[in-house]
Amino acid sequence: MKTHNIALRPTTAQVQQFHQHAGYRRFVYNYALSDFKAGLAEGEWRNGRTLRTRFNAVKDTQFDWQKPLIARVASHAFDDFNTACQRWKNKLSKFPKYKRKSGKQSFRVDNKRNAIKCEGKRLYLPKIGWVRTFEALRFKGDVMRVVIKKRGHRWFASVLVETLSMVSKPDLRGLPTVGIDVGINTLATCSDGRTFENPRALARFQRQLRRAQRALSRSVYRSQNWWKKKERVVRIHYRIACIREDAHHKASTAIVKGVSAIGIESLNVKGMMKNRRLAKALSDAALGGFLSKLKTKAQALGVHIEEASQWFASSKTCSACGHKKDTLTLSERDYHCSGCGLRIDRDLNAARNLEPSPLV
Ligand SMILES: [Zn+2]
Prior knowledge:
Strand content: 15-25%
Radius of gyration: 25 Å
Number of domains: 2
Helix content: 40-55%
Bound molecules: zinc ion
């Protein structure tokens, strides 16, 4: 099973239909929640199946506005509510809440009776019809389901495909291993000397974002001007996320190519977030997202991933003689070893310490 996230080019009418379906899903979820609460008040536990039957019994008479919409969107909502309910029952979460209109806009369409089709740069959805896309589906195989969701100002289809055959994994024995130090300034430093920078465009858009946010905060809340300014902020956020993700994809693809094993630090991101000075820069670099992309790609190729313990002092230890420094401040960009006299870039030193031993 593989997922391809495709940006859509819907018509204005289709965008309206997307909103209607996302709204239908929210409506059904909230209906299920109300009905479940009413059941509890009467001392009755209405399970997912019961709630669905009760809704189906009244939907065509009470809510006939849903007739032109894709019916299976409702089952998505019932599945979600069931999950939320089970989590509450097992004390994993709080009691389910009503979904708000301002929340995430998305809905799922399961591909029953081959109602969904993907052909070139277009996607067919029941009741909505052909929607143009920015790219063709990357994988061959049967489409299992599609999730339509809004991100920033743009709509996406996340297409789940059951891929036909698994390609056998190549033999990686004899290929070099590489250690990766991830960071805020340089996204990734490899023990073989390669470095991957965070894209410069980010800083430029960050400045634009600050300016746009200031303009938003100065305008009258929910005035026509405010919505316009708001739209601008949303667009810049989206732009920044795209640039960052693109850089992460390029770096992770380049790193996993031609190696047999990768050593990484296990980032204690939550712990680092507590350090307020580091938190902003860290969340900007979204290092967790980068590492997870790296892991997924390595797994697909059969490249071994070795995660160092989070207590391993990859920065303070000398990669040549193993001498450990007591202190190393963040401003010291070079590592200078008092044991063997080695002078080396701080990140490169850390990357070398993380390099796994070769596979045999
Ligand atoms: Zn040394």
